[in-house]
Amino acid sequence: MVATQPQSVPTRAHARYDVIVVGAGFTGLYMLHRLRKLGLSARVFEQGGDVGGTWYWNRYPGARCDVESMQYSFSFDEALQREWDWSERYAPQPEILRYANHVADRFDLRKDIQLDTRVESAVFDETSNEWTVTTSDGATVTAPYVVLGTGCLSNARVPEFKGMGDFKGQVYHTGHWPHEPVDFTGLRVGVIGTGSSAIQSIPLIAEQASELFVFQRTANFSVPARNAPLSAGEREAWRKDYAEIRRRAREDMKNGIVQPVPDRGALDDPDEVRREKYGARWNSGGLTFMGVYNNLVLDQPANDTAADFIRERIAGIVADPETSRLLQPNDHPVGSKRICVDTDYYATFNRPNVKLVDIRSHPIERIQPHAVRSGGRDYQVDALVLATGFDAMTGSVAKIDIRGRGGRTLNDKWAEGPRTYLGLMSAGFPNLFIVTGPGSPSVLSNMIVSIEQHVDWIADCLAYMRDRGVGSIEATHSAEDRWVAHVNEVAGSTLYPQANSWYMGANIPGKPQIFMPYIGGVGVYRQICNDVAAKDYDGFAMVVAARPQAAAGG
Ligand code: N01
After folding, report:
1. Which tens digit of pLDDT belongs to each residue from 208-232?
2. CATH assignment of 19-155+392-544?
3. Which of 360, 507, 516 for mutating ligand 1's site (highest number of atoms within 8 Å of CB)?
4. Residue nearest to atom 24 of ligand 1 (CA)
5. Which residue's CA is the nearest one to ligand 1's atom 38?
6. What predicted TM-score, i.e. pTM, was given to this entire model?
7. Given this model, what pLDDT does residue 548 score?
8. Structural domain boundaries of the chain?
9. Which atom of ligand 1 is nearest to 198's Cα?
10. Cα(216) to centroid of ligand 1, in Å?
11. Cα angle vertex 276, ends 270, 281, to 5°?
12. Interatomic CA distance for residues 153 and 393, integer angstroms
C-alpha cells in the first residue's frame, strides 16, 4: 500500500484502490474521510441514490432518531459539531439526512462515492492479498482492503404473507419508503408490525387515514419521547461541555449515551421511591428510562418493576380495556427487545378510526385483493404498511457474495451464526473489516459513537500496517473463538436472550438464534480494542508483504 494523494477517481471498468468501502452511511462517510487523511485512495459504493444510509431509506412518517441529536452526531471535527444546529431534541429523519449530506459536502467526499451501485461480490486472492469487487454496474475493482459499512438495519424484511401478490392497493415498507410524499388521506390503511418504526409512524398515519388497522403480533414497551424544539441556549449549554460529554460517551460503561449513572438496583428502593423515579424518567422521556437502575436488564424481579410501571401507564392512557390489555407487553422483559420511544402512540388507540387487531391469537391468514384476513375476518384496506423490520446485523452482509480463503463464503462460515473477533474481522477473511458488526456493541449503542471508534481503529490499523510493510491482517481462529465465547457469556448474564428479538435473529425464519451484539458496554469494548492494538494487534495474524504493494488509486 503506497500513499497516494486524495484524488477524484472516475468510474471505470477496472480500477485499483487502496480501500473499497461498501456503503455511504455515516460509516462510509467517516471512513472515507479518515482514509483520505492517511493519503489512501478509496472508492465508496452506495446502493442508494444518495448518501445517508439508514436515514436515506427510512423516510416513513414520524421517522426520527431515538438518541438525542446533540449526542447522535459526529464528534471527530470540532468545527462540524459547533456549526451544525439541531432543531429538535430528537432530530427528524429529513434533518439527519441533511446532516449526512452536509458532512459529505463539507469534507468534499462525494467525488469518491459512487451512488446507485450495489456491491455484488468480493473475492479474496490469496496470492496477491487483494480483493476483487464486482458491482451492479458490471465493473470490477480491486483493492487490498475492503471495509463493510453496510449498516445493521438496512436489509428490509418483507414477510411472505399468502396472497400478497393479489393485493390491489399500494404496499410500503417503512425501511424502503418512497421519496415522494405518501398521502393516506381518506384511505383505509393496515399497518403490520408494532416495533419502533410502526410506533413512530402509527400516530401520524392515524391522523390521515379514514380507518387504520394495526396488526400486532407482539406488544412492545414504549416510553414517551417528550420531543421538543432545541433552543440556541440549550445547544450552547451542550457545546460548552462538549469535550467532556463526548469523552463520557466514548468511555460509557453502557451504550455511549451520556445520562445519569444509577447507583443502585430497582429493589434497593422502597416502592414509592421507585415509582417516583420511574415517573420522573417517564416525564423527562426517552431511552434513558432503562437507566433508572443498574440491574434492569440483569435481574428479572428488578425488571418486573419497570415493566409493571409501563403497563400501568398504558392502562392509564388507553380507554378501551381490551385494547389496553393487548397493548401491554407480557412475554418479554422490558428492554430485552429494543425499547421504543414514541409521541402519542398509546393515545392513538383512543381515536375512533384506529383499531388494534391481535394477530398473535389470530395470525394473518392471507392478504386479499382489498383486505387483510385474520381470524376469519376481512379487514378492508386500501394501502398496507409493512413495519416488519430487517434482517438485522448480518442481512446486508449476507447479500454480498463474499469469498475468503480457499474460496469459502462468509455465508457458509456464518451458517450457524456470525463469528467475528471484536466484531471487526472474521477469521478466513483477511483484510476485510466490518463496522458495527456482530460481536461489537453496535445496535446496543449510540451508533455514531461506535462508528467513530471502529473507523478510527481501522484507520490506525491500516497506518500501522503501512508503516511496517504488512500486507495482510486476519483474525486468528483462536482469538475469534475466545471472543465469540465472551460475547455469548456476557449476553447470557443478562435478560436479553429471553426475548425473540431481532438481536437474536429470531425475526427471520431459519436464521440461527444467537445474541449478535456485544453487551459489555462501549467503554469496556473500546479499552479491549485499544489493548489489542497496543499489543501489536494481539489475536490478529499479520503477514509482511512479499513485495512492495503497487501504487494504488490509479
Ligand atoms: O422493526 P422490528 P422496526 N407477521 O423488527 C412484526 C431501529 N429503529 O423497523 O415482534 C406479523 O423492531 C414484529 O412482530 P414480532 C431500532 O433499533 C430505531 O420497527 O416479531 N408481524 C414487530 O412488531 C429498532 O428496534 C428507530 O412478533 C410481523 C415488527 O413487525 C429497529 O430499528 C426507529 C411479522 C417489526 O419490528 C427495528 O425496528 C425505527 C409477520 N410475519 C427503527 N414479521 C429510532 O431511532 C414481523 N412482524 C426511533
Report:
1. 999 999 999 999 999 999 999 999 9
2. 3.50.50.60
3. 507
4. 196
5. 196
6. 0.95
7. 45
8. 19-155+392-544, 164-233+249-386
9. 19
10. 11
11. 125
12. 6
